[in-house]
Design brief:
Blueprint: E1 2-7, H1 23-43, E2 48-52, H2 63-74, E3 80-83, H3 99-102, E4 108-110, E5 117-119, E6 124-129, E7 152-158, H4 176-180, E8 186-190, E9 207-209, E10 225-231, E11 236-242, E12 247-255, H5 258-269, E13 277-287, H6 289-305, E14 308-318, H7 322-325, H8 333-347, H9 350-367
Parallel strand pairs: 1-2, 2-3, 3-4, 6-7, 7-8, 8-9, 12-13, 13-14
Antiparallel strand pairs: 1-10, 5-6, 10-11
Helix pairs in contact: 1-2, 5-6, 8-9
Length: about 375
């Protein structure tokens, strides 16, 4: 029996520019996620840990942060097998060549050469596919020829699957058929930040992306896990283990009345750990001034509950009701302008109404009297 943890894309040193004042905490969470992976390896008595590229955001990560990372790896109680990814690619100026990283210990193996490496005490041959530049049109696994001699054969690669994952680019491209033809017991992939495929849905897949152990940004569905792999000579089991501290959620709503606001509130309340929740709200629809004011109060309440909130409401149109327009003095220029715009809106075609609605909202927000 062989059992190990598979992770990738820890991205230590990333700047997290999209989360405002929370950036420093999100940055620190990268190292903390590696600490959780190492602790998990100890708790589960793993035979080894695989890091399939991009442990670091780049090769310019500070000396202090490199030493912190090495210190975390030094505490691992089993071998750690690392390949260089396209962010921390291997070369003369590689972060893996620094003395501060080498202090991690002899049990930490940076597998920089593309050649089989036999670990006889584990009865496994590792086929490492480190990256040597940021971009390459060549498949990183093209060199592999399975060699006899051990019970288990594990490939570690970093690259894209453009024929299987929508949105993948063609740098370091690998094909599904190519990977299946390698004859490996397991192929540990890095670069895609979400688990793929889902081992619960496709347990027989020869390859898996572990995804990032800590999400890096919004839009990374099924991120924040490591994979636990169990092999024997006749079977294999792959399962996800949650490791993330922060949770990134993108929520979209069509709003036309106060009842839609209630749905937003219920959805936010359903999250268990709001103190580590980052939320992006995308809002669309046509609403009255009263509903807009209720929405502003709701988002202010949400911002106090969660770690970070960003609201995208460019597609949300303000359409004052007749009663709301009556707040303006009768006969005033603002009232006449809004009345004229309302008339144009009512007479316009469907394709033009949105333009008039935005004009009404703009004028109303600029000219309305304080409540």
């Amino acid at each position: 029996m062989l059992q190990f943890l598979h992770t990738a894309d820890v991205q230590i040193g990333m700047t997290a520019p999209g989360v405002g004042p929370l950036a420093q905490k999100v940055q620190a969470a990268r190292v903390e996620s590696l600490e959780r992976v190492v602790a998990l390896g100890r708790e589960r008595n793993a035979d080894f840990i695989v890091i399939a590229g991009d442990l670091f955001e780049n090769n310019r990560v500070s000396r202090e942060l490199t030493m912190r990372t090495a210190d975390v790896l030094r505490k691992a109680s089993q071998p750690v097998f690392i390949i260089a990814g396209n962010h921390d690619y291997y070369g003369p100026s590689s972060i893996y060549c620094r003395e501060e990283f080498r202090s991690a210990g002899s049990h930490v193996h940076v597998l920089s050469d593309r050649k089989p490496v036999v670990f006889s005490d584990l009865d496994v041959t590792i086929y490492p596919c480190s990256c040597f530049e940021t971009r390459s049109p060549e498949s990183p696994v093209a060199w592999i020829r399975k060699q006899p001699g051990t019970a288990y054969h594990v490939c570690i690669a970093h690259g894209n699957l453009p024929d299987r994952i929508a949105g993948s680019d063609h740098d370091y491209p690998m094909r599904d058929e190519e990977l299946r033809g390698l004859g490996m017991d397991y192929i540990a992939l890095g670069h895609w930040h979400s688990v793929y495929p889902d081992p619960a849905d496709r347990p027989d897949s020869p390859y898996f992306y572990s995804g990032a152990p800590e999400p890096t940004k919004f839009g990374e569905d099924n991120s924040g896990y490591v994979l636990w792999v169990e092999l024997d000579t006749s079977s294999r089991s792959v399962s996800t283990v949650p490791t993330s501290c922060y949770q990134f959620e993108e929520l979209s709503y069509e709003i036309h009345g106060a009842e839609n606001l209630s749905a937003i509130g219920r959805d936010i309340e359903a999250f268990a750990k709001k103190e580590t929740l980052l939320v992006k709200l995308a809002l669309a629809g046509v609403i009255s001034v009263d509903v807009r004011e209720q929405l502003d109060r709701l988002t202010a309440d949400i911002a106090r509950m969660v770690a970070f909130l960003v609201v995208r409401d460019d597609a949300l149109v303000l359409a004052p009701t007749d009663d709301e327009l009556a707040r303006f003095s009768a006969g005033g220029i603002s009232a006449r302008l809004l009345s004229r715009l309302r008339q144009r809106h009512d007479d316009a075609s469907d394709s033009e109404r949105a333009q008039y609605a935005r004009a009404i909202a703009l004028v109303y927000n600029m000219l309305r009297e304080p409540a």
